[in-house]
Write a structure and sequence with these properties.
The chain has 336 residues and is α/β, with parallel strands linked by helices. It folds into 2 domains: 199 residues, NAD(P)-binding Rossmann-like Domain (Rossmann fold, 3-Layer(aba) Sandwich); 101 residues, UDP-galactose 4-epimerase, domain 1, CATH 3.90.25.10. Helix content is 38%, strand content 18%. The protein has 10 helices and 13 strands. Strands 3-2-1-4-5-6-10 form a 7-stranded parallel beta sheet, with helices on both faces. Strands 7, 9, 11 and 13 form a 4-stranded mixed beta sheet that branches. Strands 8-12 form a two-stranded parallel ribbon. Helix 1 crosses helix 7, helix 4 packs parallel to helix 5 and helix 6 packs across helix 10. The longest helix is centred in the first third of the chain and has 21 residues. The chain is globular, with a radius of gyration of 19 Å. It starts with 5 loop residues before the first strand and ends in an 11-residue tail after the last helix.
């Protein structure tokens, strides 16, 4: 095991990134966070990690950081995440999610840093023909967001061949929940993820939840997704970092293998919050896939990783603990 690594975490003030920073610190690693705080929160960055506010595309800043801190590895979360927005403004997503990653990789090559953990997405698979999804499932991305992520995966593989970059690309399924102590959690603006929006109804911040589609070929007619607790996802990043070696290329599905319907999320939230959570049913959204569920056997076998949060109730309860204690999110950027 690699201990006491010096790690640059890009986007480490964001939802998944901030949880990964805590896991890195707990494992004994030294952490510097680079985040422009456009979607992240300074108060989400745990001490003693050092927060540097700046742009990932600033190659001079990257050069200064790599020179000063002599990093052993980079963990890369910084990206725009809204699929719908990527359709409206694709070049913004290609420039940020792909172009800025290429600039980061160029700086890593210049400073001879050959360990990299990448925040990828199951959206690169598009609409799979079979479930569950394995890492060998053909990748047919349906959005500019997903295509930009896949372009980075291609660049990583080419970099491994050209200059011995070692990388792990984790293809996320649905990250959910909050830290066990309810000090950090999910705070996006606008919020598009299901569980936070369900809980906003329980908090009285929304009148109802809009349920898109009830006629899917699933057990209750609503979409099925694979929810992975954010702390389990963070732990997977640390395990990936500690095993990857220069020249290695690894791709893993970061999910649990368990599918949960939208109605099951809503009912679980009702039980935990004690709120009726009214629902307004509307037609399907274009592009929504009936079922997305991971086959996580490869990451479990290779990294010795397995999720600690195996019950949906525990995932939703941790999210509720965060949202009920922080109804307006982080104090450094309250919702308007």
């Amino acid at each position: 095991m690699n201990t006491n690594l010096s790690v640059l975490v890009t986007g480490g003030a964001g939802y998944v990134g901030s949880h990964a920073v805590r896991s890195l610190l707990a494992a004994g690693h030294r952490v510097v966070v680079l985040d422009n705080l456009s979607a992240g929160h300074a108060k989400a960055v745990a001490s003693p990690a050092r927060l540097m506010v700046g742009e990932l595309g600033d190659e001079r800043l990257l050069d200064d950081l790599f020179t000063e801190f002599r990093f052993d590895a980079v963990m890369h979360f910084a990206a725009f995440i809204e699929v719908g927005e990527s359709v409206v403004d694709p070049l913004r997503f290609y420039d940020n999610n792909a172009g800025n990653t290429f600039r980061l990789l160029r700086s890593m090559q210049k400073h001879d840093i050959k360990r990299f953990v990448f925040s990828s997405t199951c959206a690169t698979y598009g609409i799979p023909e079979r479930m569950p999804i394995t890492e060998d499932t053909p990748q047919k991305p349906e959005s500019p967001y997903a295509r930009a992520k896949l372009a980075v995966e291609w660049a990583l593989a080419d970099s491994a061949a050209a200059w011995q970059l070692g990388f792990v690309a984790l293809r996320y399924f649905n990250a959910a929940g909050a830290s066990a102590d309810a000090t950090i959690g999910e705070d996006h603006s606008p919020e598009t993820h299901l569980i936070p929006n369900v809980l906003k109804v329980a908090l009285g911040q929304r009148e109802h939840l809009t349920l898109f589609g009830t006629d899917y070929p699933t057990k209750d007619g609503t979409c099925v997704r694979d929810y992975i607790h954010v702390e389990d996802l963070a732990d997977a990043h640390v395990k990936a970092l500690e095993v990857v070696k220069p020249g290695e290329r690894r791709f893993y599905n970061a999910g649990t293998g368990r599918g949960t319907t939208v109605r099951e999320i809503i009912e679980t939230a009702r039980q935990i919050t004690g709120h009726p959570i009214p629902v307004v049913e509307v037609a399907r959204r274009p592009g929504d896939v009936p079922v997305l569920c991971a086959d996580p056997r490869r990451i479990m076998a290779d990294l010795g990783w397995s999720p600690r949060f195996t019950e949906l109730r525990d995932i939703v309860a941790s999210a509720w603990a965060w949202h009920s204690k922080h109804p307006h999110g982080f104090e450094d950027r309250r919702k308007k």
